[in-house]
Specification:
By secondary structure, the protein is mainly alpha-helical. The longest helix has 20 residues. It is flat, with a radius of gyration of 17 Å.
Length: 81
């Protein structure tokens, strides 16, 4: 709550989450687009999406996460982009 308050105080005017990089957003958006499919179709669709990511994508995403994690630790857990 404090983080959101600080963001709005600094001029933010949207309640939407900032865009994030990573598998979860990509998969969730794609699955949301096909929400009328059967459960089996959704599982297959999710597997296709995840299997399409390259090894370099995983390495890059992991390295970004490590960088954000280190920044978060350095500033005692405050919000980090």
């Amino acid at each position: 709550m404090y983080r959101w308050h600080a963001r709005f105080k600094d001029g933010r005017n949207s309640i939407e989450d900032d865009p994030r990089f990573g598998r979860i957003s990509v998969v969730a958006c794609s699955i949301k687009d096909s929400a009328k499919d059967s459960a089996d179709d959704l599982v297959k669709h999710k597997q296709d999406i995840v299997s399409s990511f390259t090894d370099s994508w995983y390495v890059e995403t992991y390295n970004k996460w490590i960088t954000r994690h280190r920044k978060c630790v350095e500033i005692a857990g405050d919000y980090v982009r």
